[in-house]
Design a protein that fits this description.
The protein has 177 residues and is an alpha+beta fold. The protein contains 5 helices and 8 strands; from the N terminus they run βββαββαααββαβ. The protein has a 5-stranded antiparallel sheet, with no helix packed on it. Strands 6-7-8 form a 3-stranded mixed sheet, with helices on one face. The longest helix has 17 residues. The radius of gyration is 18 Å and the shape is elongated.
């Protein structure tokens, strides 16, 4: 997990299917938990946030009334930045299994700079499975037959995942024809 200065952390809101919920996109690896947070961090709860869920790419915050976003969004953004600077306030409501932590770490890595490198070369990668602390990854597009595939898998991607999840035993390439 990485600690960020609140002034340097770039976040932005994205609408969801539920008008009472806004997904705040945060940099991958900002938080080391996934799932519903219990309790909602105090400073957010004081602003009316009733539910907080950490996803691999952000934080979903729910207000009791969608209309409150019009008046509370700025204050909630400021409070969210403050709480992101103190990752200890983000506690999962349920025990997160090792495979879930690895899955979240891989998804965060693929959403971040390691995934951007893959996509910038016309490729894509996705998590197929987690077995015995090993993440099984499938590459597609131009990555599929690239001579640098193993370097990307065991270099860029593995480092990005290991930074987020020291429990990882390794990455394995899945070849599907």
């Amino acid at each position: 997990m990485t600690t960020h200065e609140t002034t340097l952390l770039a976040i932005h809101p994205v609408a969801t299917a539920d008008p009472a919920t806004i997904a705040w996109v945060i940099p991958p690896g900002t938080l080391d938990t996934v799932g519903e947070v219990d309790p909602v961090p105090t400073v957010l709860a004081e602003l009316g946030v009733r539910r907080a869920v950490v996803t691999p790419t952000g934080v979903e915050l729910t207000l009791p009334d969608p209309a409150l976003w019009r008046t509370q969004a700025g204050a909630i953004r400021t409070a969210l930045l403050a709480t992101l600077a103190d990752p200890g306030v983000w506690r999962a409501a349920q025990v997160v299994l090792e495979a879930d932590r690895i899955t979240a770490a891989v998804e965060q890595a693929l959403a971040g700079p390691a995934g951007e490198i893959i996509r910038s070369h016309g490729g894509d990668a996705r998590l197929i499975d987690v077995r015995d602390r090993v993440a099984v990854i499938e590459f597609s597009g131009s990555c599929r037959h690239c001579p640098a595939l193993n370097a990307t898998l065991h270099g860029q991607l593995a480092r990005a995942v290991e930074q987020r999840c020291p429990d990882l035993a390794g990455l394995r390439l899945e070849s599907r024809t």
